[in-house]
Amino acid sequence: MRAIMIREFGDPRGLAVTDIPDPVPAPGQVMITVEAVGVAGVDVMIRSGALAAYGFREGHILGGEVAGTVAAVGEGVDAAWLGQRVWAFTGTGGGYAERAVAPISEVLPVPAGLSLVDAVTLGRPGSWPTSVSPTRTSPKGRPSWCAVPPAASGS
Fold this sequence. Notes:
With 155 residues, the chain is mainly β. It has 3 helices and 9 strands.
C-alpha cells in the first residue's frame, strides 16, 4: 500500500510517498481503509523534527486520526465492525496511508449523513461524543444531527 512518510525532517518537501506492507490488526484493533485523514499541529511538529527528542525519526508515517471503512478486525473485536464507516484515533501516526490500524477503544461509528471528511474535521480524541450528537427531531419533525465544535485549541 502507499503511505506518506517523513523522508527528511523540515518542511512538506521532506515528505515522500512510499510503498509499505499493509498493516495487520493486532488483538483489540481494527484495520481501516482510509478515506480521510486529519492534519494536526502535532503532525507539523513531528514533520519539522521538533519532537525528535521524543523518539520520532525520519521514516515515520504521520497521521493520528482517520476516517474510513473497517476492512479487518483483530482477535477479540466483534466482526460486526466490518464494513462500518468509522472515525479513529490511531495514536501518534500511521494515518497518512491507504490503510491504518487503531485500537477498537479509539474507534467510533460515523453517523449516516455525515461525510468522512467532516468526521475527521469534527473528531479528536475524547471529543466525538460531545461534539457530534443526535438531536431528537428537527423543527420539521425529522431526526437530525447537531454539531457543537470544541474550543479552537489547535491540537
